[in-house]
């Protein structure tokens, strides 16, 4: 055991702890105000979650030490990760630091580089256009459910390609919301409760087993298509020069893992696919829901977005290559990611006794860091509750000085960040292009911190003359001109 390296000061304990449960009631009742209140007590603050103490880091510079400069002393771990690992195995987000993590990260990194994601861009746009164009004009819709469905559909197209059979897509759409709900329950409850043979625990285990079976079918489908394409490639290429381009068009990012030299076992492939699905959907889904909500509150911001979009696309539908020319859309999305988390509590475990900003942290202690907390720090984000996309202009962004940690940092930094920005921009731009008016039809939503920061209720109606791209199946991909549809109800 190593001794702390510097003289230490006593670590303040957050007020309001109760015997036995510590601050668990605060985390259950008002977690976001509780988290942001900790800053006033010091740069590292002790809280108790039940009988277990945890050290919350409130200074973004110290969080960087935990994630980057001293990462070897703060291993990925903690209660939430343990709970997730039971079902999701050793996927990239839950596997312990070490060789397996490094190897799998290296294998998966190419799936999520910008150039590779760009190859899926137009296919994602087309899928999103179909879904958004199918909403009925004026119907009040559950925004959180819609955004999760769309992010899932776009992600499936990116991961498994464009020709995944419809019944598999449908089963994913049915299963994932229940899986996410069950996962939230598993991470909130004490572990001994989640291990009891209760109906809810059994149902969750059965759903995860069904998801594994479904992923298996998607992998088999993908693998058989790849084998066929490889077997037929030379002949097809000779017969039709566009055949290999068409095959590439249909392919998915998951091909990278299936074709890797350093092959993963079937169980590992399942773990990685589950990890990606659960990591990708709700994070981007909630961000989009909150973005739309802020647009209903700020017509000026919505108008600027629409003008930017029209300036770039004129009257035609979005193409992937447009995304780099929509800086204001990126600012708006970044502000939504800042204001609404979406990650609000992430954990590490101290691998040795260590000094953190003058505080002694004992080996084995849980460390908590919170992007939400840092992103509401008024020292870096004045008036943190204000939705202000202009914080992210090139002139003003430097003032945030490393306090935007929504995607983490260091060796466990979000692997899907590039993908997330692409998907967020595609979905926001498509909704705006399709529907001229967006209206909140529910009461003002409250932010609920579960796995992400989600709205407790949020419905919206989309109105006006719906604009749809021309039938893209008959047009060159991404080159179709616009048509206007009078908003006929979808079948
Ligand atoms: C707004 C969207 C997103 C946010 C805010 C977000 C946030 C994060 C954060 C904070 C971490 C680091 C956790 C830690 O340090 O322990 C993380 C890791 C991860 N994220 Fe994301 N994420 C987003 C979207 C995505 C997407 C779209 C994918 C998949 C394509 C994804 C897949 C992952 C994976 C696999 C990890 C684990 C990386 C590792 O440990 O090596 N995320 N994410």
Automatic annotation (TrEMBL):
Cross-referenced PROSITE patterns: CYTOCHROME_P450 (PS00086)
Cofactor: heme
Region (Disordered): 465-491
Coiled coil location: none
Single GO term (MF): heme binding
Keywords of this entry: Heme, Iron, Metal-binding, Monooxygenase, Oxidoreductase
InterPro entries, per the entry: Cyt_P450, Cyt_P450_CS, Cyt_P450_E_grp-I, Cyt_P450_sf, Cytochrome_P450_Monoox
Pfam families: p450 (PF00067)
Residue stretches of biased makeup (Polar residues): 471-491
Binding site for heme: 414
Membership in a protein family: Belongs to the cytochrome P450 family.
Identification of the protein by name: Cytochrome P450
Organism (species): Streptomyces tuirus
